[in-house]
Design a protein that fits this description.
639 residues, alpha/beta, Oligo-1,6-glucosidase, domain 2, Immunoglobulin-like, 24 helices, 23 strands, binds alpha-D-glucopyranose
């Protein structure tokens, strides 16, 4: 049983809110103490631990009462984030509808599509010019003027709550910008704040780090350290040179960041996206990702937040190898005590692999290879987001298929990044590193799935094929265990946006090609026109409705993967009590058949022909084989 389940039990006792806070603190104290002293040895840090114990009740008392009441309701009502009713959308406020007020006006649009969970990209202050889309933070709580004011944000969060829409915001926990108040003081020579970052007089220690540290942005920001002449020191900058890595070996940093985290949830944030959390701890001689200390630190944040604001949960943004991602749910005594939610980056990358290869073996192998997640944790399933697509597959699994892993990766980059004439994809090669041969892919879902090329060549068959692919991939994320997250614009098949090439602050970063403006004109015509865009929108709207009406889609660790004997097919089943739903998808451009005897054995034909919820037609079997059309997705419901 994880700590959250213990808190749930305790919250049933009818005690008052402060008593429950004390109980939560008592319940988590051993773990908090253990994680704290594992990072900050006891002999030297008793004083800091006392500071933490004073900070927690202070933060609790400052939490708005409405949110404290919501915390208690949520504790009592179970894991809201595992519900089939949840469907998310990620968006840039300025690209969606100008600012926070504009966003609020669009609440009816979310309702129309069925979206009730929003991830807003960073809205806090940031440097002018390059800011990594706001991931270089000048503050954690101040709303950047271009989005509106804090009042606008509070009005929005309260309107979202009234409309049953959950909110996720980023907590850029690994780094600040070089204009953050701490960085500014450090630059001026303040030793205290120089210690908030990894700063070095000369390159001796950085050189040791560089021996094993990989590069995140090798094209635009090679190396992991930046020299700051005013400070006469090097500072660690793993991402861009203007993003300074926070030094969590200093407990003061942890204490300040904990207060920032809680205050962020006090604005009415339900899910906190822990940005780049795999990087939180650095150690010479390692790649400084996924280190055990990073896990202890995340669990420490979690255990403290849970005491103060138990209704808010954490999302792990760990875009790392599949077996490492699940570790962010916590292992051993930390199991279920780190992040409640994690991006299913593995599923995302594997779906793109299956589209390019038209085969599903690597998808199967990888899904079977990942250890099961704790029962109180869930995924965010998505096909595209604001970032690039990394080829995060396990090499040994590629090799088990008889493929050369290096050549396979090269094939994927060629397929998606316009280096093969026959490929329908129109992506861009991102951060190619000639030293390692690694590269990533940018581009919108629709352009990567062939819609841009099909429209440009006026090829109706290809348009249809591309729409089917788009629907199938979204359909898988809607049917998988976890929260489906649609990237704004994808619900209408938005193509690449090349305008970033004319903006000096963006042109070095092709991720902007997949950060388009919301096309309200197309949206206004969805009902009137029969276009690829309206086909995508209407089908997604329908699938979302089906998902919300069927409890099989709630995440109870109730997903089973089936091998069908056909390498082009993916099949998985969701079950709940006596309800069963079988998903079958064809990743090939030709019709495929599968032996239907195992489907019969599962009982799908016991009470007559099952209904395919996607087409709303019954599925008849005229032979021992079931035929699945190119890029068709079936959702068979057992009658
Ligand atoms: C995360 C964000 C990405 C950003 C990076 C550094 O990976 O998704 O957009 O560049 O963190 O903050």
């Amino acid at each position: 049983m994880n700590q959250a389940s213990l808190h749930r039990l305790l919250s049933q006792k009818g005690k008052d809110s402060k008593e429950l806070f004390d109980l939560r603190l008592a319940t988590n104290l051993t773990l908090i103490q253990k994680q704290f002293f594992s990072l900050y040895p006891e002999e030297r840090h008793e004083k800091n631990f006392k500071k933490l114990l004073q900070l927690l009740p202070k933060l609790y008392l400052e939490r708005p009462e409405a949110l404290r009441n919501q915390d208690l309701q949520r504790l009592k009502s179970g894991n809201w984030y595992q519900s089939e009713k949840l469907v998310g959308m990620q968006l840039y406020v300025e690209h969606f509808n100008k600012d926070l007020k504009g966003l609020q006006e669009k609440i009816p649009y979310f309702k129309k599509l069925g979206v009730n969970f929003l991830h807003l990209m960073p809205i806090t202050t940031r440097p002018k010019g390059e800011s990594d889309g706001g991931y270089a933070v000048n503050s954690y709580l101040e709303v950047d003027k271009k989005y509106g004011s804090k009042k606008d944000l509070l009005e929005l969060t309260s309107a979202l709550r009234k409309n049953g829409i959950y909110l996720m915001l980023d907590f850029v926990v690994n780094h600040t910008s070089n204009e953050f108040s701490w960085a500014k003081k450090a630059i001026k020579g303040d030793k205290k704040y120089q210690n908030y970052y990894y700063t070095y007089e000369d390159f001796t220690i950085p050189a040791e780090f560089e021996k094993t540290l990989p590069e995140v942005f090798p094209e635009t920001s090679p190396g992991n350290f930046t020299y700051i002449p005013e400070m006469e020191k090097w500072v660690m900058t793993v991402f861009n040179s203007y993003q300074w890595d926070l030094n969590y070996t200093n407990p003061e940093v942890f204490l300040e960041m904990l207060a920032n985290l809680v205050k962020l949830t006090d604005l009415g944030v339900d899910v906190v996206r822990f940005d780049a959390l795999a990087f939180l701890w650095k150690k010479i001689g390692t790649i400084s990702q996924n280190l055990p200390e990073a896990h202890n630190l995340i669990s420490l944040f979690r255990m403290c937040l849970q005491v103060v604001a138990p209704g808010s949960i954490l999302l792990a943004e760990a875009i790392v190898a599949p077996t490492n991602i699940v570790k962010y749910f916590g292992e051993g005594e930390k199991r279920g005590n780190e992040c409640e939610v994690a991006y299913n980056a593995s599923l995302m990358a594997l779906l793109w692999n299956s589209i390019a290869t038209k085969k599903t073996q690597l998808l199967y192998k990888s899904l079977m290879h990942v250890p099961p997640k704790p029962k109180d944790c869930t995924w965010i399933n998505y096909i595209r987001c604001h970032d690039d697509i990394g080829l995060g597959y396990e090499n040994h699994l590629i090799q088990e298929l008889g493929w050369n892993s290096e050549m396979h990766r090269k094939f994927l980059l060629d397929y998606y990044c316009q280096r093969l004439d026959w490929s329908p994809a129109k992506g861009i090669l991102f951060m190619y590193n000639p030293k390692t041969g690694d590269g990533r892919i940018t581009g919108s879902a629709a352009s990567l799935l062939g819609l841009e090329k099909a429209i440009a060549t006026k090829n109706d068959d290809l348009i249809k094929e591309s729409v089917n692919k788009i629907i199938m991939l979204h359909g898988i994320t809607l049917a998988f265990e976890g929260i489906p997250l649609i990237y704004a614009g994808d619900e209408i098949g938005t193509l690449n946006d090349y305008s970033f090439q004319n903006d000096a602050s963006k042109k070095g970063d092709s991720r902007w090609v997949n950060r388009p403006r919301q096309d309200w004109e197309t949206i206004s015509k969805l009902e009137k026109e029969d276009s690829p865009q309206s086909a995508i929108f209407r089908t997604l709207q329908k699938l979302i409705k089906i998902r919300k009406e069927n409890t099989v889609f709630a995440d109870h660790n109730n997903l089973e993967i089936y091998h069908t004997g056909n390498d082009h097919i993916l099949s998985l089943e969701r079950t709940h009590d006596d309800k069963r739903l079988l998903v079958i998808c064809n990743f090939d451009e030709n019709p495929q058949v599968i032996d239907s005897s195992w489907i019969k054995k599962l009982g799908y034909f016991s009470n007559g022909e099952p209904m395919d919820l996607v087409s709303a037609e019954k599925i008849a079997l005229n032979s021992a084989l079931l035929e699945v059309m190119p890029y068709q997705m079936l959702w068979l419901m057992k009658s």
